[in-house]
Amino acid sequence: xxxxxxxxxxxxxxxxxxxxxxxxxxxxxxxxxxxxxxxxxxxxxxxxxxxxxxxxxxxxxxxxxxxxxxxxxxxxxxxxxxxxxxxxxxxxxxxxxxxxxxxxxxxxxxxxxxxxxxxxxxxxxxxxxxxxxxxxxxxxxxxxxxxxxxxxxxxxxxxxxxxxxxxxxxxxxxxxxxxxxxxxxxxxxxxxxxxxxxxxxxxxxxxxxxxxxxxxxxxxxxxxxxxxxxxxxxxxxxxxxxxxxxxxxxxxxxxxxxxxxxxxxxxxxxxxxxxxxxxxxxxxxxxxxxxxxxxxxxxxxxxxxxxxxxxxxxxxxxxxxxxxxxxxxxxxxxxxxxxxxxxxxxxxxxxxxxxxxxxxxxxxxxxxxxxxxxxxxxxxxxxxxxxxxxxxxxxxxxxxxxxxxxxxxxxxxxxxxxxxxxxxxxxxxxxxxxxxxxxxxxxxxxxxxxxxxxxxxxxxxxxxxxxxxxxxxxxxxxxxxxxxxxxxxxxxxxxxxxxxxxxxxxxx
Length: 508
Description:
alpha+beta
């Protein structure tokens, strides 16, 4: 093993922003042989189509040195962490946070960050988006963007002025420079939301908690092709898209954090899904910094502020991170933020802790009251209703957040046709709190191997449905008819099988 001294590590990691990425995809329904690529600049973790509205969308990509991620039989680094004050070596374990840790990364001879297991090293180059309404013969195109190492060679294109309720095709191209031919094209598509007055049917999917070590197939996760078969109009990832603080390679600096994103989103099942479905990304603790992280925290050389920056860099999430989107006359969705808006550890020692914060709570109350959508869905990274385990202290269903939790549940209780959907918990449930009658659906983790956390033989009165030891996702469908629209929610297993469903007709 070749040990890199701390100063060399810092120098290496500043260069190793040449190291993560994207994979070229094919047209919807195309076979792998239809993937178009040549030597040059590639896109080894595909594209992400983010934040679709009735008139706009963001298209994310990243220029990479290779067409594919490194295979999962590649080398891994050895990570050591030392206390900065005492010099004592600290044990690395899942969910650990190294407040005063100094990380030292050692690579096997002949390897570096760009050749690690699952890596997809980035490179300088140019990229652009071509797009058209499905069936049109006329393509529109953006200007070429330079892939900047300061942003991990990512690029985001905002497409605006789009017509509502329209399916679009996109072709995201990459080339080495302005003198070179296009060497990689990822084809995909998305649908814009219906206008607020449109009497439209909608289909969507929600998932959470995908840990790299708990994937259930070589190419990623079974739930992605299962969700794709549902043909959703949009998709929500409620958080923990990566786990920085799990496995042998904890993200103790920015470059290792970017490595986590590249190896995850380079999987073929994720690439194929995200090029075809518009997505909304919500952050939680493990994909911000560490387990139960707060503003001001750090682990090794990686700070909470770094985590916010890398998250936006890798998902094209907008600002503010909480937002509401209208999908036609019958559906409005609220996406809440529970990580960067929560109070700091220092503040919690003297004041009742908050998770959403007063500004977001006022926004949520105001926008819910102003909505005339038939069905309103509040999607939260962590539970509002639960029940949760008694020892937990990280969400609004816990006693520790009772002041803000009761305030939020009180005004949610007065909203007609409202449902809460939560991520974070590693089991599936449907519950209704006894005091306010708010119904909450927990989507469950991304794989069976990642499921745990409750005793299925001990349901509580709140539980309408309870399923542990298995992962899955949630689907929703708004149906319209001449008399009364309805909302059907289903919990699925990882292969798409329905394990629970409920249809809610609109109440007047």
